[in-house]
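**Fold tokens**
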Amino acid sequence: MPDTPQPETVDLSITVLGRTLEHLGVQMYKRRDTAIAELVANCWDAGAGKVDIRIPEAHDYDPDQSTITITDDGNGMTAEQVQQEYLVVGRNRRQKGGGTGARARPVMGKKGIGKLAGFGLAAEMEVCTWKQNGCTTFTLDIDKLKQEGGVSANIPIKGVRSVKPVWAASDTGTRLVLRDLKHKSALDADKLSEALARRFSRTTRGEMGIFVNGVEVGEPALDIEERFPEAGYYTANLPDGSEVRYYYAFTNGTIKSAELRGFTIYVRGKTAQAPPFFFNVEATASGQHSTKYITGAIEADFLDDGLDDQSDLISTDRQEIDWESEKTKQLHEWGDQFARKVLRECTDRKGKKLKDWILQNQPIAVRVEKLDTTSQKQVTKFLLILGEAEPEQERALELADSLVRAFEYRHFHDVISELDSIATNPADLAKFLGNMREWKLLESRAVLEIVKGRLGIIEKFHQMIVNDAPETKSKNVNDNMHDLIAGSPWLLNPEWQVLAEEKAISKQLAEWGASDIQDEDARMRYDFLALTDERRLVVIEIKRSGHAVTLEDLQRLERYKERLAKAQTKDIHMVMLCGGSIDVSPAYKETWDKRQDGEIATWGEVYDKVRQYYEHYRAILEGDVSHADFAKKEVEIAQTRQVLETGTVHRDPVARKEGLGHQDSNYRIGILAFGSLLDDPGSEINVAVERRIESVVTPFNVEFARQSTSRDGAPTLAPVDQGGAAVSGAVFLLRPGITLQEATDMLWRRETNRVAPEAHYNSKAPGDVEIKSQKGLVGVAEVLYAAPLVNLKADAKQLAALAIASTVAKAGETRRDGISYLINAKKQGIKTPLTDDYEKAILEQTKQTDLQTAFQMLRQQHSKLITPM
């Protein structure tokens, strides 16, 4: 075995002037990532193809014991090169030419001080460099290199010359070990990788792999929406012929790290202008708020093509370009226009993306379509601006709702003006809309506007009473009491619901299903029909203030009541509304005063009651702004303004065609349908339904938990206390005037297969089907639903057996069997925890592929069995 040469001491030295090394290393490279990047640049200049950086893990970090190592496979150095080149501070490597060996490349360094960057991290740097199978190792200690200010000294350094270390993986290379670290906390490997990725261009990293703790530094992890160009770089030529290569990209979300935002300018593959950088136009450019969504790179090698120090336009720490130089003027002018273009483009894309997404939301899109054309354009403009603030999707919908609401209540011109005033600042716009939502600004102001408007209408009411306004429109006078009440029905009583106006008794009887309609009924016409808060019907006759009510007037009102009572089970109350003058005998007047089914009311009494009601309401309102369902109030606001601005309550033909105005009392009853009731409500309920409210989720769980005798034992859905799932259904909104008892009886009769109208539900003894109610569901005052008795607790196989048995029974003839019931439930989108297994069990037991085929097969088999041979 040949003898291994023994290590030998080699004398090295470095010339130091005062505290020059300390200033160049410690002061110039205070940031750790900047210092490491400078040391990596030295690896590039040494011709390295790979750089391996090892930093301590946070849990093992100890500044006194931990080390940072940087190892490359570059050209390495002999002891002579160390002395003549490496230990010469300020040596300009470029004057000697580019890199040497197989990886000759443009040199990044020029000042010759990058080697000192290690002192920004540590007090001691150990250098081990190998070449030609020989290795030179030496240590630079900042404490030993310090000199007094103004003193120059040649400081000796003891080095060791030996053979290439056994751990060295390459034939040539250099390893730098940093000890006695200066920072109390450990470096973050991910953040260091991110910083290095931005400090060295793709081209550089393509030629020299950089690894941090074994993981190669790649492109920063950004959620790129689109890159321009998709790959590679665009090329631009400046007026002086200098070439610029660049790309830019937009991200889907905000870029969290500032160092990944904006443009990095690279010169010779290394950062010359650190991000975030937008050529200083971000404060004035259109689209300035898009800076958090833009990343890109610009390669401008021409900025550092000189060999002498005088041509140097880049700061020593590679953070900033000298933009005061004449040589950088054209690049800055180009960059100014480029940055403005990219910022505007990003803003337009973000705004359009959010606008399109919001307008795909059907409820908001429908509301926007109802706005006038000018308002639609303004809403679209604000949505585009809002996109720059990049709110989360749920938040964006909330802000859009507030925005659209502002235009729906477009009489708040000052709100729209404020929106316009902040439109240039997306963040301020988002904040303002958010505050509008949180403070319920529009809601509170809308309620106040309505109450003030109603008080104005009440004052108009008072004026018309005092001035003896006519009962109906005349040739000479438009204002009349009938139009006033019809336009604002709440004037009669805020807690009443006015059902109809000026309707012939014959027509009303026909609507109620009466068969005995006489000729006289067509000649009689009441003024108003209302429903009280006590669920009583009130037939109302009105007379002008100056009219004295006569015996004929009161008897006519009585005839109205008598005729209506023949077709209506509700109690009917009578109200004669007049100025207070009554031209009847004292005995007849006394009879009316004692009546339980009628009264003579004065306009003054009605006025006092409604005025007190709204004065009190306004007082409450001004102290509490939380009241609100104002979507229904928009039409009323417009009508109120029209009356107050024009000074007349007269309704034109269009307004008359629209019918009664808004009123506070709107007690309605609905029936919640799920399962078979959805498709087959029965004739009685069908006639009573005004409209269906679709896609209503049951406020309780349902399951196949009832065995129906009317379906030959088939499983049906029923509300359950345990298990099951909430399912989709619909609410049948019943016509006005139908009482709670009537609706309850109708639903109970349908569920128990009774048709006789005299059959009534008994809540004390409900039997197999109980009728329950839910208040306020989908805005309906009271919603009824059937809760059949739960009498079945079966698994999927048992359910399938019952369904099959019902299919071959009589129920199958009319499709009231269990399989048909399940098919319909699936069509309606009803799915419970048992649904899938239930269907699967039917198919397994019938050996069929779908429910319809299974039904047909079972019916065919049944038909063969009962048909004589």
In short: Residues 329-359 form the longest helix (31 residues). The CA atoms of residues 574 and 598 lie 4 Å apart. The longest strand covers residues 152-163. Residues 98-102, 619-634 have pLDDT under 50 and may be disordered.
